[in-house]
């Protein structure tokens, strides 16, 4: 099961004297296996699939992502300023929560609240969906979803947070991976760098970079200008909940997408189906079009292509509500309009 791949690490194992960040993978796994409550939490999605979690980890925590192909990956959840001084919380974005765009960033409290509302300080289930799909596409199974292959591709991740999809893309043979998040994101203050150093021994010819980027800020940004139309694969995992940013996000996708490139979007339904519907209308207005779209049960696994449960995308499901939609996510592939 996909969601059970991720488990908390009670403590971070020390890096060995060989300076090889993965020499202590066995110690990390042993540490995770020793916590009964963590084992129970990892299997809650099996017991209560309709309440499948949309995000994982606490700010600053270390998680163990168990990859069948690449082994155990240690992932640091991004922190945020004055974390120790304020009570740790797990805010859940709502349909109407667009206030992240209107925070008074001149005050320290406003900056902290703005950064929290970026929701970079979690690992999102949508990111797990992308990471697993990329990994599975390169695993050599008989039934492989070719749309997720990144070998030789130039990959851009938007709103990366802990950047798990980017890390798996590097391991899967992408030629270039650029990891981006909002300039004020706490992920840019060490978590992304740690996750790269911890899990990537050698880039194997992959050019890896980290870049602060605010969606929609394009022509004034020298980096954006230099990379217009460059990326053949763009990843956006759980980036749709802030509706005031839909147009900016669509502009950024179109700007950076290579002529024959594809955008991968995975969106959880925790903020409701209408948010996804409205974003899809926005991307069409911005000059992109839907190449592929379906709904996926996040509690299933795509490994080997036999267990993943999919269904057709519809804009309205009469029987759907908060009590039964959490297990589902929307998977979309976009391309430039014909």
UniProtKB/TrEMBL annotation:
Residues 76-110 are annotated as: Disordered. GO terms for molecular function: S-adenosylmethionine-dependent methyltransferase activity. Residues 90-104 have a biased composition (Low complexity). GO terms for cellular component: cytoplasm. Pfam families: Methyltransf_16. This is Nicotinamide N-methyltransferase. It comes from Aspergillus japonicus CBS 114.51.
